[in-house]
Design goal:
This protein has 384 residues and is an alpha/beta fold. It contains 13 helices and 16 strands. Helix 10 links the parallel strand 14 and strand 15. The termini are far apart.
């Protein structure tokens, strides 16, 4: 009987009385604002500071509490703004990057919170309806991560289930929530929203001037969309991740561009001259890749980090994984990954040697055979 009574006493800590999930909002406002030249939180738009606009939006939404993480100019911001029911906390190590602010915010949300909504302080055009939509979708479907998508472009804020809080707490440096997305591809829910404000963050005085040129109190969706920085946000375009730099990698980037793939070249010594069409990632960490619904990975590292790259490609559930290798090296790699406990079903996704059999011998021909194989697999997947 005592054990039953103990469980009953803990019930309010496991859920709120209504049984409805509570979502806390964490507003990240600790940055240096170096590009703006002054504290972004205090920059005025339409008679209100950016932070006041964000807090007003959150108060009209379904969030259960608001935690504001301050750092740079914290004292000035606290003296200038009426926080009301929002609770400011200080990140004294704000110069070390976003991860620290994220951790401070998460450690200050209520123990009763089931999830946290990570809101940027420089997004003054968010709609309360958008936040409510994300919360409703979370309550209905219980994903690990909820991301708003406007016209196919990934936006903010992002909603995170408490289940991923420990993983976020391990992040360091100038890294945000996106660093863990690659580990949760099946736990991410992308929610279409009718809110261009999810894409607009204002970093410079030029951004402010461009927005205010309309002279309108309420900026139109079209104007906001024109003002959005859409780099690395598009989710509909397939993404080719090329690991390693050699002539085949260069040819792959050229062909991928013609086929309208977004391309990322991953290599510690990569430069734009290796593949002008590609973004460069000099760390073998697929969690840092731009978010995409369709990832295609080709490993051309010639044995340098083949195994590590294949493992990461499997972790992000890439639609296509190709390895540039002869049959003997491909067999050795499969055996090694199998010994690590990777299931045969997953290993069967790895095309090794990569490419259709067309008798290819030159780098351009090999790249052609690989892209043909990738496109074929993509078309079959879309036909299902």
């Amino acid at each position: 009987m005592d054990d039953i009574e103990s469980l009953r006493s803990l019930a309010p800590l496991m859920r709120n009385d209504s049984g409805v999930s509570r979502v806390s909002a964490i507003v990240l406002a600790a940055g240096l604002s170096s590009r703006m030249g002054t504290a972004k939180a205090l920059v005025r738009i339409g008679g209100k500071t950016m932070l006041e606009r964000v807090l007003g939006t959150l108060r009209e939404s379904l969030v259960s509490e608001i935690v504001v993480v301050l750092g740079h100019s914290a004292g000035t911001i606290q003296r200038s703004i009426d926080f009301g029911n929002a609770r400011p906390v200080i990140n004294d190590s704000y110069r070390e990057g976003m991860a620290g602010s994220l951790n401070i915010g998460l450690s200050n949300v209520s123990d009763h919170a089931d999830a946290a909504l990570i809101v940027l302080a420089d997004q003054p055009f968010l709609k309360p309806e958008t936040i409510n939509c994300l919360i409703d979708e979370y309550r209905s479907k219980r994903p690990e991560i909820v991301i708003p998508v406007y016209r196919g472009f990934r936006g903010n804020p992002v909603l995170l289930s408490r289940s991923v809080f420990p993983e976020l707490a391990s992040l360091t440096g100038d890294i945000g929530c996106r660093a863990i997305f690659g580990n949760h591809t099946r736990g991410i829910l992308k929610v279409p929203v009718d809110d261009a404000g999810t894409l607009v963050d204002l970093d410079t005085k030029e951004d402010i001037h461009r927005i205010e040129q309309t002279g309108a109190q309420e900026i139109s969706e079209a104007k906001l969309f024109e003002s959005a920085d859409l780099r690395d946000r598009e989710m509909r375009r397939p993404q080719l991740v090329i690991v390693g730099r050699d002539p085949v990698a260069t040819a792959l980037a050229v062909l991928a561009d013609l086929l309208e793939f977004r391309t990322v070249l991953v290599d510690p010594f990569a430069s734009t001259s290796d593949a002008p069409q590609a973004s460069i990632l000099r760390v073998l960490d697929f969690a840092r890749l731009p978010q995409s619904d369709e990832n295609f990975v080709v490993v051309t590292s010639r044995g340098r980090f083949d195994e590590e790259a294949i493992e990461q490609a499997l972790n992000i559930d890439a639609l296509y994984i190709g390895l540039l290798a002869n049959k003997r090296r491909a067999q050795r790699l499969r055996a090694s990954l199998s010994e690590k406990g990777i299931e045969k079903e997953k290993l069967d996704k790895v095309q090794a040697p990569a490419g259709l059999e067309i008798g290819a011998s030159t780098p351009a021909e090999i790249a052609l055979s690989i892209m043909a194989e990738a496109v074929s697999i993509r078309r079959r997947a879309h036909a299902v």
